[in-house]
Design goal:
Blueprint lengths: L4 H26 L6 H26 L4 H10 L3 E4 L3 E16 L4 E16 L6 E5 H22 L3
Antiparallel strand pairs: 1-2, 1-4, 2-3, 2-4
Helix pairs in contact: 1-2, 2-3, 3-4
Length: 158
C-alpha cells in the first residue's frame, strides 16, 4: 500500500496556493509603509513558512525523497491555535477550519479560512484561547495511519 496520488496531490497543491496568497499578503503588508523590526521579522518568518510549504507541496507531488517527513512537519505546525496574554499563534497555508474554546467569558467557536493566515503576537491583552486546525489535524492523523500500515506491510514481507 502506498499513499494515494490524490492525497499527495491535495497536500501538495494547497500549500503551493497558500504560499502564493501568503507571500502576497506579506508583501502587501510590508508595502503599506513603515513597519517595525518585530513586524518585519514576523513577515519574514511568515514568508519563510509559506515558501517551506510550497517546497513541501512540490516534494509531495513529485514524490521526492523525504516528502513524507517534510509534509508531516509542515502540517503539524498548522494544528495548534493559541491565544494568551503571553503569546498568540496561528498558521495555515491553503485552508483552515479551526475549533476553539476560550475563557472569560467561557465559550467556544470555530472559524474557516481559505487562503493563508499567520499570527504571532507577544504580550497581548486578552483571554486564553485553545484550539486546533481540524484540516491540518485530519491530514496529520491520516498520514500517521497510512504510515503505520505501510510499516506493518513492509515488516511482514508484503
Amino acid at each position: 500500500m502506498t499513499f494515494p496520488a490524490y492525497f499527495r496531490n491535495a497536500i501538495g497543491v494547497f500549500p503551493i496556493l497558500g504560499c502564493v496568497s501568503g507571500v502576497m499578503g506579506s508583501v502587501l503588508t510590508a508595502s503599506k509603509g513603515s513597519i517595525g523590526l518585530l513586524t518585519g521579522g514576523t513577515l519574514v518568518l511568515a514568508s519563510f513558512l509559506y515558501l517551506f510549504g510550497a517546497y513541501c507541496g512540490i516534494a509531495a507531488i513529485k514524490r521526492r525523497f523525504g516528502w513524507f517527513r517534510l509534509n508531516f512537519l509542515f502540517w503539524l505546525i498548522q494544528v495548534p491555535v493559541l491565544a494568551s496574554q503571553l503569546v498568540s499563534y496561528r498558521f495555515a497555508s491553503g485552508w483552515l477550519f479551526s475549533i476553539w474554546v476560550k475563557t472569560s467569558p467561557i465559550g467556544a467557536g470555530s472559524d474557516f479560512w481559505l487562503g493563508s493566515t499567520f499570527t504571532l503576537k507577544f504580550f497581548n491583552a486578552g483571554n486564553l484561547v485553545l484550539g486546533m486546525n481540524l484540516v491540518a489535524f485530519t491530514i496529520v492523523i491520516y498520514m500517521l495511519q497510512v504510515a503505520r500500515k505501510l510499516n506493518t506491510t513492509t515488516t511482514q514481507g508484503g
